[in-house]
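Task card 7
Instruction: Convert sequence to structure tokens.
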Amino acid sequence: MLNHALGTVRRGIPTIVIAGVLVVASATSGATAALVITGKQIKDNTVTTKDIKNGTLSTKDMSSSTLSSLKGATGPAGAPGAPGAAGAPGVSGYQIVTASAVIPANDGGEVVAFCPAGKKVLSAAGELQGAYTGTAVNLDLSATKATAYAENYFDTADTLVIDVVCAVVG
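Output:
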């Protein structure tokens, strides 16, 4: 029985070797073909449209002159769109209101400027005309007036001025 088994193994070895060689040859044949033909070896103008698989080229594969030749004429203008919604009311009636007050030497004080009726404060700035000491500006909650405060640290009187930007706000 052992002889019969060894005879079968001996006869199967060549078959296994041939099958292995065929598997290796078929697995490397595609890679071998890819290594054999390169782009440098293809003659210019020999690859045609039917040689290129559909969907494999993109714009990065084409020259800029080819891409520009693919552009057609500009089409007709489309129909006008629907009108947009009305915008929010804006600002109108811009006006600057100025007020001033004399601040005695070594003293503090304030000046108030009011916007005309129907207008609101958009901005305000205050300054002492003769000095660069601290001034502050306060806007009231109704936004119809602004107040500037200042301390005059000098031995002479100074004028505190406030400029208020007023406008009709819709």
